[in-house]
Design brief:
single chain; alpha/beta; 7 strands; elongated
Length: 201
């Protein structure tokens, strides 16, 4: 049961180097320190940079231009925000515009009056119907309202293109409404595209 406890807490503290007490000890201590700095005892993987040496990369000079060649312009950062870097506006491609965009540029018809005309664009036969009463309310509530114009004239169409004159409603295309042919008072004739124009009052 007799446990000896080391003095000065030697278990927890690291071992301290011995300090020379006599002149002879000091001579031996100095010799050991010098021996540690011997080149044979230095770690070969220890590479200490010498800050007194100049960086050779700073001394590289560009090759002079050959005879007959112009020196390259100085390197400058491009100004990406300047107006000279903005590409010029390209003209609109008119061929990409839909053929029906040029149909019926006349003034809005009188309310309740049916205006009929046939147009031909690149061989396509168009029937243009103009009325402004019923269709606006139907489009506002997103209903596929049947215009009274087709009912009163008993016209039957296969393709119906709807174009709005006001900025609130875009162009809308819906499927077949009645049958395969478009019938007009002058006779029965088939059309490739039926255009119904309505105007917001």
């Amino acid at each position: 049961n007799n446990v000896q406890i080391p003095e000065n807490n030697a278990l927890s503290s690291p071992q301290q180097p011995e300090v020379p007490q006599t002149p002879d000890d000091f001579t031996e201590y100095t010799a050991n320190q010098v021996n540690q700095m011997d080149p044979d005892n230095v770690d070969p993987f220890l590479n200490i940079p010498d800050h007194n040496l100049e960086d050779e990369s700073n001394n590289i000079t560009p090759n002079p231009p050959a005879a007959g060649e112009e020196p390259p312009p100085p390197a400058t950062e491009p100004n990406l925000q300047g107006p000279e870097n903005i590409p010029p506006p390209q003209p609109e491609d008119q061929s990409a515009m839909p053929a029906a965009a040029e149909l019926n540029q006349q003034e809005p018809p009188i309310e309740g009056e049916a205006v009929k005309s046939t147009r031909s664009t690149d061989g396509l036969r168009f029937l243009t119907l103009g009325s402004s009463v019923t269709w606006g309310a139907g489009m506002e509530v997103r209903y596929f309202a049947y215009p009274y114009l087709l009912t009163d004239d008993r016209s039957k169409v296969t393709n119906l293109a709807v174009r709005a004159a006001g900025p609130k409603y875009p162009s809308v295309c819906i499927q077949s409404m009645v049958s395969e042919a478009a019938r007009v008072p002058g006779g029965s004739e088939e059309y490739d595209v039926i255009v119904l124009e309505y105007y917001m009052r």
